[in-house]
Amino acid sequence: MRKYIEKVEMNNHLLYEEMLEASKHIFDERTDSQEIIDFLVALSRKGETAQEVAALASVMKSYAVQLDVPEGVYMDNCGTGGDGSNSFNISTASAFVLAGTGVAVAKHGNRKISSAAGSSDVLEALGIHADFSEEETMAMLEQEGITFLFAQKVHPKMKRIGVIRQQIGKPTIFNLVGPLTNPLPLKTQFTGINRPDFVMDYASVLRMLGRERAIVVSGAGGMDEASLAGQNTFVLLDKGDLIPFSLTADEVGLDFAPASAIRGGDAKENAAIIRSIFQGKRGPHFDTVAFNAGIGLFANGHVTTIQEGIKRATDCILSGKALQKLEAVVAFSEKINQKAVAR
């Protein structure tokens, strides 16, 4: 491991094969924790490459639990996190809207690492527990058209890495890798990163991983979501082609709003924000979810334009379908809890 640390500290990129070997060391319990910290910090300072990200994603996914996946076409919409925007849980809210429109969503997520509330934290605050068995996770997907895959549950080797990431306290390559390691076979994906310079590289990694259609965004101000606060940088992957484009909120009929308008808080506060959106409260929080869910619908191929996607997402929320989907998943979770108590 030390030779790779030294190479990266000298600002040299690792070859794909080198990163494969280094990644295996990262997941080896015998590797000293401080060496892993040194390696991850050095990579972050240097700036990760597409080859390094793809190699780590490949190794991490190979260690994921094997799930008995019901037949279907699934998408994920989780972002990399670590953008420092302190926004509420936009992709988690958007996932319920996507599911409410009929898209089958397998949402990858985690607890807070570099934010006040991770996906798992806010779901628990909404009444959805994080301790589903593999069978229950897949049953939710089959029954409700949405499920949540918690990183430490589906990636058992991440338990130790999670502790190391918390010790570092800053974004690492694992933020970039997270959305790439969903254990389900995904054909479509909408994901965000906080590096506008890396959007094309990230889309090329998704292509290498076999996505047929996907969108990568780096939002205004470095958000890992599409933002109302300025120009958003995108790449659309469509049947092997990588198509860059940019977009502002006003170009799709939404009002400008500064990033401060969508700040969140802890899990309880963010859960309250999501419920208020689903109850039809209009404003920047609502528009941000409609924007991102609309792009997700376009990435999935459910609509032919982002504008059409935003309209469908808005209709889904105002009709109560997004709230109904949330309540159905909460009820599913409560039923599982009651069975556990009865046992």
TrEMBL record:
Record's keyword terms, sorted: Amino-acid biosynthesis, Aromatic amino acid biosynthesis, Glycosyltransferase, Magnesium, Metal-binding, Transferase, Tryptophan biosynthesis
Designated name of the protein: Anthranilate phosphoribosyltransferase
Gene that this sequence comes from: trpD
Binding residues annotated for anthranilate 1, in chain numbering: 79, 110
InterPro entries: Anthranilate_Pribosyl_Tfrase (IPR005940), Glycosyl_Trfase_fam3 (IPR000312), Glycosyl_Trfase_fam3_N_dom (IPR017459), Glycosyl_Trfase_fam3_N_dom_sf (IPR036320), Nuc_phospho_transferase (IPR035902)
Gene Ontology molecular function: anthranilate phosphoribosyltransferase activity
Positions annotated to bind Mg(2+) 1: 91, 225
Co-factor remark: Binds 2 magnesium ions per monomer.
Residues that hold anthranilate 2 according to the record: 165
Reaction catalyzed: N-(5-phospho-beta-D-ribosyl)anthranilate + diphosphate = 5-phospho-alpha-D-ribose 1-diphosphate + anthranilate
Function according to Swiss-Prot or TrEMBL: Catalyzes the transfer of the phosphoribosyl group of 5-phosphorylribose-1-pyrophosphate (PRPP) to anthranilate to yield N-(5'-phosphoribosyl)-anthranilate (PRA).
